[in-house]
Structure of Decarboxylating 6-phosphogluconate dehydrogenase:
Amino acid sequence: MQLGMIGLGRMGANLVRRLRQAGHECVVYDVNADAVAMLAAEGATPADSLEDFAAKLTTPRAAWVMVPAGLTGDTVFKLADLFESGDIIIDGGNSYYRDDIHRAKALSEKGIHYVDVGTSGGVFGLERGFCLMIGGEPDVVKHLEPLFATIAPGVDAAPRTPGRSGAPSQAELGYLHCGPVGAGHFVKMIHNGIEYGMMAAFAEGLGVLNNADIGRAAAAGHDAETAPLADPQYYQYDFDIPAITEVWRRGSVVASWLLDLTAVALVEDPELGSFGGRVSDSGEGRWTVLAAVEEGVPAHVLTASLYERFSSRGESLYADKILSAMRKQFGGHHEKPST
Amino acid sequence: MQLGMIGLGRMGANLVRRLRQAGHECVVYDVNADAVAMLAAEGATPADSLEDFAAKLTTPRAAWVMVPAGLTGDTVFKLADLFESGDIIIDGGNSYYRDDIHRAKALSEKGIHYVDVGTSGGVFGLERGFCLMIGGEPDVVKHLEPLFATIAPGVDAAPRTPGRSGAPSQAELGYLHCGPVGAGHFVKMIHNGIEYGMMAAFAEGLGVLNNADIGRAAAAGHDAETAPLADPQYYQYDFDIPAITEVWRRGSVVASWLLDLTAVALVEDPELGSFGGRVSDSGEGRWTVLAAVEEGVPAHVLTASLYERFSSRGESLYADKILSAMRKQFGGHHEKPST
Amino acid sequence: MQLGMIGLGRMGANLVRRLRQAGHECVVYDVNADAVAMLAAEGATPADSLEDFAAKLTTPRAAWVMVPAGLTGDTVFKLADLFESGDIIIDGGNSYYRDDIHRAKALSEKGIHYVDVGTSGGVFGLERGFCLMIGGEPDVVKHLEPLFATIAPGVDAAPRTPGRSGAPSQAELGYLHCGPVGAGHFVKMIHNGIEYGMMAAFAEGLGVLNNADIGRAAAAGHDAETAPLADPQYYQYDFDIPAITEVWRRGSVVASWLLDLTAVALVEDPELGSFGGRVSDSGEGRWTVLAAVEEGVPAHVLTASLYERFSSRGESLYADKILSAMRKQFGGHHEKPST
Amino acid sequence: MQLGMIGLGRMGANLVRRLRQAGHECVVYDVNADAVAMLAAEGATPADSLEDFAAKLTTPRAAWVMVPAGLTGDTVFKLADLFESGDIIIDGGNSYYRDDIHRAKALSEKGIHYVDVGTSGGVFGLERGFCLMIGGEPDVVKHLEPLFATIAPGVDAAPRTPGRSGAPSQAELGYLHCGPVGAGHFVKMIHNGIEYGMMAAFAEGLGVLNNADIGRAAAAGHDAETAPLADPQYYQYDFDIPAITEVWRRGSVVASWLLDLTAVALVEDPELGSFGGRVSDSGEGRWTVLAAVEEGVPAHVLTASLYERFSSRGESLYADKILSAMRKQFGGHHEKPST
């Protein structure tokens, strides 16, 4: 079937390619004309404006918006101005699910349907397929199902779960209609929250391995500020962390795609010298914490993993100065200089 | 080659089976004679006492101890009394790596070698192979390598990491000599610490999904103790969590063996009615935190995942009572009854 | 000067009493006629309806709303319907500062001024005075200053901070105009967030003291699920926690009003037998976390203290069941029964 | 009565002064002869060697050791060599309570008594008195009680707790015999753990206040890495944090000595420009976490406050690099440069 794609960055372009490989027709648009030209050269139908894009789509139109998070709302509403009752706008980006609810309500006044799709798979999705978490009206989602089934990895991407048999369910094919509007991005939000937590688990654990040679350091001088390491003999290990991440890939409980990627990264850059350690966060981790708080459900791990990213960017500096200021007041402690 | 196995529980028995399938000879012993008889029926050489066990092993002996954590030390030392210089004792259980250091030192006085092996793979190891993390003297570990290579999953258990080519390294075969005595259990300790963190990430995230229908609950009465949910319209989702864990298995960033297992568990018991939510912890998670603290490395996520297990068993009750007592004092707040 | 008070619960009634003791005139209203009658008996001017309340106030009217959080918005808007341009409505409850911004904007269309006041002091405020954090237009706040100065504790309530001299500042008198509308409740929100963190610090620390006799427990049986306590000789203390909280009150770094209250609570109920350990949370702790997340500032401690309250009410149960379900899958671990 | 003091740093010197003001006799020694001379000039009896120190003390000797943590053990054992059966050695420093247990056992073989005293009060102790937490044999502690009563602040240092009447208890006088050897430092350890948590609560809360103007920052460009701040209108506050800490000192629930000190620090240096934010930790915080873990008691807040100090010193760098490396692998995300 036909799909329009707005936003031809890494993800959008790969979605188009995956759809076209399966015989779907794609109309493509991007503010960057070069991106349009590249996909046109691969066989997609180019559009040179939103108007042109709308004109080249057959009604009922289906358009997938895949633009940076801050631009999604504007793009959706501009498109809605050009679309008609019965058309469908799909937000495949990393939108806040609450924005989905607001947008769907606004679009419904014109009879336009809104579908939110959380998309996971990163730069590997073209080859592996993308995991799709979908929210929207049941019949609209059903109408789009041929597209979702193409984009998703398919049942063979993983061994079937014992207890599941017969024709594979949607979920086993790699896409899932999760509920009404917003449900797709809600599930994607939690997915990313979990991703933050898993990443932090690996990062912290490897951090402890990395410091396991601390007992070899020359004994620090005795002062009232620092307790000497009681038992340096227990911290004499010089671990080969690239090898350790590799060995865990086979047979261990922590085997995972994130571990696979960590092993790749450590082959490419064993000392991680190309990284400064400033870790971005892009919305879903924050929204996951907001949801946990509003629901009254504890999420120590997911939240800590978010806060560690804040700290990595220096955002705890004021608090740390307050601590040093207090210590100076009650104990006369002066800060130890960095060594 | 020949290996003696002491402790024929789930793990020990499967190690023996995996070794024997590859043609190694196994002498087996357990305090439970039935366990010995079962493996003897499968072709292993039975021993009916530690003395008999020692006598049936060819020098230089190699014995693998796979008994509950609290019994490992006693077993190792009893065996050492029966062994001779040049023999090897392998601790394949979940020992604290510091105990390895102490034991190895004690055994070295008699010329007996000590090797510590962290073993991951759970109940699936017989089929998948076990991931082995090994500490000990280089030549001793090298001597045992045929056994380790058999027990480990082998290179085909996972796609090779891009950048790794030629003959597979130890790590790619699924076992790794991590360093001197204790190094194997140190790495296993961190592995389990990471496992705790990953498990908590999934558990917390699914917990937030599970409560996403909170906006449907009848509006709670207004009182000074509880803030009403500001926006119930955002919490109207009734998610199919078994399907969500299934869809994440294909193409998503959180794909992992732990996710696979969660999906299985949710097929078996979709409402988790067979669980009470009292979560055990068995040592490595605690030791990981101790190491982080002694090394001065932050481990928010790994620690929180451990503490959540403590809380699941009611261990925060006293602290919670203190909080209620304080609230009563300063605000006259009385505890709200459970509803 | 004159002030109207709506809401004569614990806090509202004590505010009226404190104002009247200093000679201010108070018009009082509550849906509970008994509460009105009680304060009328003490000399306040009673009102038997909102209309009566508005009528008895001299223009420009000043009315303080002190009702449960969930009712504040309605009360403010009903009152605004009866008030005129130039009148002032003060929200002294625990409102979300964002609601202040919305309400002030709505009221400004009618020329009515809105002032938000965060009030701390609990049940002791009548005697000690209340700490006031104020947001609103500068001249309006200035107009109300005689009331704030009366309600606040005054400079003598604490020794002056070294470096502050001359006429006491507002802050030293115990009230502070913190900024534009919402600023008062923002500062109160953070105040309560800090309060949660301090309370949790005490609760957790006392929890560790309380369990310091764990080494005396009969050694648990050896099994694969639980690591035995390595060094029971270090956990043989039977601490007198009421005495410990008392001794800390004099000369120690943790001396604080919360410690004083904890000491009182432990004199009243040394074993805390009257508490079940279900700890409420009333909004500010949650909003503090939301602010930290939106600002991108780490708040590990404040957030953990909130989540511990959630856990105390059983809200981690689903996550805990997930953990047990995972453990059963990979390790065949069955839950240990509660003992 | 007579007391010997070894270690005439800030704390040791002030203890001597406080004892002498009350008429006790003090023999003093320090490796720094100037420190000895200064206290001799104030009337203490100087010693120029440990031997001289031991000789000038009347049997049964009582000596208080107040040296840096790393030197305490050596000092205690050197002193024990010079002392006789019946003499008493008091460790008033910040020792690990387990070291107390070991030392007391070693000294008991010679008949020397060991008393551990946790001392809180910081640089203000000379004037305010020190809060003393004491472990040791009952009759030995009783023998030393005149010294403890002098050092402690006395009952008038705080209003009596309602419910306590009659002759003040030890705890009300500001010192407490907490239990057998090690009990004093155990309680001091937890005290400091709580102190860490309280400090972090203030630091984090003030950090959120400090960033409450984030909505004023020029809107960041739209990119896929960062979610734009959804509602900048809610973060327009420019708070006067010195004034806020001042106003909380009177009447609020967070009133505390740590708040008093924070207010002082912010008068001295309102922008905290003299601090770099590298926060030391000196042992007790770490030991508190170890105790929580070994006891199986959750301590989210106390642990997070410790880890934040580690992070303030850059100890999360490796973990943060791992996170960036993972993000690059799965998402092609490159680190954003510091701006």
